[in-house]
């Protein structure tokens, strides 16, 4: 018999990666625009990545995480910044 229980789909983290070139202001702008973050939250997440190297932005379904990460990274690319958002499955 096959396994009867349905596995809950894995959740994915969107991770903000620090770099030396993207202005802090622009990072908070993207966090607010793409992830609907409030000013204070976006500043706190940006500063966490700035100091620690990375910061978790949100945990959600895989397709949403990937769409948002691409949207945010593309926005930065269009503006000429190397800002990067990655996704990875939660443990
Ligand atoms: N380190 C950048 C600076 O000093 C700011 C920054 C913060 C960039 C967080 C990316 O994910 C980041 N201008």
TrEMBL record:
Residues 8-84 form the Adaptor protein ClpS core domain. It comes from the Bacteria. Belongs to the ClpS family. PANTHER family: ATP-DEPENDENT CLP PROTEASE ADAPTER PROTEIN CLPS, ATP-DEPENDENT CLP PROTEASE ADAPTER PROTEIN CLPS1, CHLOROPLASTIC. Keywords: Hydrolase, Protease. The keyword Protease applies. GO terms for molecular function: peptidase activity. Involved in the modulation of the specificity of the ClpAP-mediated ATP-dependent protein degradation. One of its GO terms (biological process) is protein catabolic process. NCBIfam families: PRK13019.1-1. It comes from Shinella granuli. Binds to the N-terminal domain of the chaperone ClpA. This is ATP-dependent Clp protease adapter protein ClpS. Pfam families: ClpS.
């Amino acid at each position: 018999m096959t396994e009867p229980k349905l596995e809950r789909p894995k959740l994915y983290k969107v991770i903000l990666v620090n770099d030396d070139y993207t202005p802090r202001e622009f990072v908070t702008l993207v966090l607010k625009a793409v992830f609907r973050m409030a000013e204070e939250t976006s500043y706190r997440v940006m500063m966490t990545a700035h100091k620690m190297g990375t910061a978790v932005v949100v945990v959600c379904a895989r397709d949403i995480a990937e769409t948002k990460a691409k949207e945010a990274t593309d926005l930065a690319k269009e503006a000429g910044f190397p800002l990067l958002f990655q996704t990875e499955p939660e443990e």
